[in-house]
Amino acid sequence: ITITRPPSAPWPKIVTVDYGAGCTGFNDATRSGKIIIEVTGPRAETGSKITVTFNNYFFNGIKVEGTKVFENAGLNNNQNPVISIILTGGKLTLPDGKTIERSFNHQREWTVGFLTKNIWDDECLVTGTATGKNINGVAYTNTIMTALHWKRVCKFIVSGVVKIEREGLEAIELNYGTGDCDAKAV
């Protein structure tokens, strides 16, 4: 891991995680190539961005591509911090040549825990859309109809509704319930 920044200022920082030709780590996962992370300022500062890109990066033989940008959009009308997360050109190329594509534009309204040191109290409401193509080349669009309530202490989304539209099929809605920390959705 290397970190570069201007000699007279703390920002921007560029963090490069270089796995070289390949190494095996936690859970026997094999990685190669580079993950490059540019940070323009502190997370809590409005306008600060984190941009993640990949340079010939592979995870367990799967090539990972795309650009993911996290930006602090400031406080909303509820005085909660909002982080915009945009993935463009997301693509996984499997060893057999099949691909999975995904792009999204999400907003996370942090309702609890944004500035605390304890990550386990984090909660946010997620809105936005995602588009892409699955491994069979079928195009899809997922639209969050009712904000998804995410709690770090829960394994699953606890409430909210997503509309799932797939090429050639009738649209469906997935409802995560009323807030219980469970694996149930309708």
Summarize the structure.
This protein has 186 residues and is mainly β.
Considering the chains and any ligands shown, give keywords for the structure:
mainly beta; twelve-stranded antiparallel sheet; single chain
How would you characterize this protein structure?
Strands 1, 2, 3, 4, 5, 6, 7, 8, 9, 10, 11 and 12 form a twelve-stranded antiparallel beta sheet that branches. A hairpin with a 5-residue loop joins β7 and β8. This protein has strands spanning 2-4, 13-18, 23-24, 30-39, 49-59, 62-75, 81-93, 99-112, 123-133, 139-151, 159-166, 172-178. The chain is globular, with a radius of gyration of 18 Å. The protein is built from no helices and twelve strands. It is mainly beta and 186 residues long. The mean pLDDT is 96.
Query: What series of H and E elements makes up the topology?
Result: EEEEEEEEEEEE
DSSP summary, beta strand count: 12
Global structural class: mainly beta
Give the CA-based shape. globular
- Biggest β-sheet strands, sense, barrel: 12 strands, antiparallel
Number of helices: 0
Uncertain segments are: none
Question: How much helicity do the residues have?
Answer: under 10%
What value does the Rg take, in angstroms?
18 Å
Strand content: over 45%
Mean pLDDT across all amino acids: 96
| Beginning-to-end CA distance, first to last residue | 43 Å
Ordered list of secondary-structure elements with their pairings:
Elements (H helix, E strand, L loop, with lengths): L1 E3 L8 E6 L4 E2 L5 E10 L9 E11 L2 E14 L5 E13 L5 E14 L10 E11 L5 E13 L7 E8 L5 E7 L8
Antiparallel strand pairs: 1-2, 2-4, 3-4, 4-5, 5-6, 6-7, 7-8, 8-9, 9-10, 10-11, 11-12
